[in-house]
Amino acid sequence: MNATAHPSPGSGPPPDALPVSVQSLGSGSSGNAFLIQRGDHLLLLDCGVGIRTIRAALSVRNRRLDQIDAIVLTHEHIDHVRTIPQVIDARTPVIATAGTFAMLRIAERQRHPIGPRQSIDIGGMRLWALPVAHDAHEPCGYLIEMAETRITIITDLGAWHERLAGAVEVSDLVILEANHDEEMLRRGPYPPHLKRRVASGVGHLSNRDCGMALAAISRRGGTTPDVWLAHLSDTNNRPTLAETTVREALARHDVQLPVSALPRREPGPVWTPRHVPVAVPAAGYVPYDEPPPAAKAPTQLGLDGIAGF
Ligand SMILES: [Zn+2]
Ligand SMILES: [Zn+2]
Fold this sequence. Notes:
Shape: globular
Number of domains: 1
Radius of gyration: 18 Å
CATH topology: Metallo-beta-lactamase, Chain A
CATH class: Alpha Beta
Order of helices and strands: EEEEHEHHEHEEEEEHEHHHEHEE
Largest sheet: 8 strands, mixed
Number of helices: 9
Strand order of the largest sheet: 1-8-9-10-11-12-13-14
Oligomer: single chain
Bound molecules: zinc ion
Helix content: 10-25%
């Protein structure tokens, strides 16, 4: 594994095409995890579903827990880290931002901090951290670049930001939060403070905002990724409603994408690239070069959102 601040043009994962697969093992406030496989290499992205689910998913791949190449974390919320103690062994590398590590008890030697505009390569998978606005210490999504394909996973964010568009534009699979229907949240049973938190700029992305972001990017870039809607609320959303809202937003921009909502409490389908290129596409991902954020007052949640990244 090695970290690269600025990859040179033309560098990238090796050109030999290997089988790639991605599967959600659960997506929502009760637990999140994705298993990403490239050839013999396995990443567990977030670690919030039950250990039996993780073991079962590994077992069908003829793998064991100690054969996971790395655990990759988006942030420290319990629905993303709950099962770490049962999954991690003394050798498993963990990739997360410094802010996320500061909130977790993980041995120093296992920590591989990743920052914005920086990548870490593991098993031919180049991980880029994508800073997001969410009420955690230093949350992020990830772009994973391989010779065969690119995948973007962004599951907990209060607001869309243009800096995320570059990753979505180059991806064949986009996994994006569609947490709630705004009307269901407004009328639903959550107490007022929780409604405010979910709808805030550091809470969770609504179906409408998810659809608008995808539509704008797809229209502009002419890309047609497969889209999985993630982290759906049990109380304030329905899978068909999320899918319909996103499809309608896309249709308003004359865009059609294969959109499906991930199951909340059980594993979802296994995704594989539709076509496997024989070499790395010439233009790799270029991280969003953002001016340093201006100092701003903390929000009512006592967090400074994206300014903290
Ligand atoms: Zn979450
Ligand atoms: Zn969260």
